[in-house]
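Researcher: We're teaching a course module on how sequence relates to structure. For the next exercise, students receive a sequence and then see the predicted structure as tokens, so they can try to spot secondary structure elements on their own. Here is the exercise chain.
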Amino acid sequence: MKRFNPETKTFKVFHALYNGATLTAAQAKKMGVGNLAAEASRIRQAGYAVYSNSRTAGNGVTVTEYVMGQPSREIVALGYKAKAMGITV
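Model: And here is the predicted structure for the students to work with:
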């Protein structure tokens, strides 16, 4: 799996998610990250399972939360199948 430069925004987000935090865009802004979705995408491309969950806050606003988890068996199976077919990144 890819390692991230500790001086980047991607590392800040990765470190928080890897340690079990759930991040929203507002929390990411406090960390200096303007586009949390882009950082989550970079982490996914490095091979980590980052999930986004939408919920409605108490004031009626829809909030997207990001959390790191375990990939499903189906995703792992698809990865192995792609590799067997010669598909690489």
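Model: If you want an answer key for the exercise: The helical segments are 9-18, 25-30, 36-45, 73-84. Residues 37 and 45 are 12 Å apart (CA to CA).
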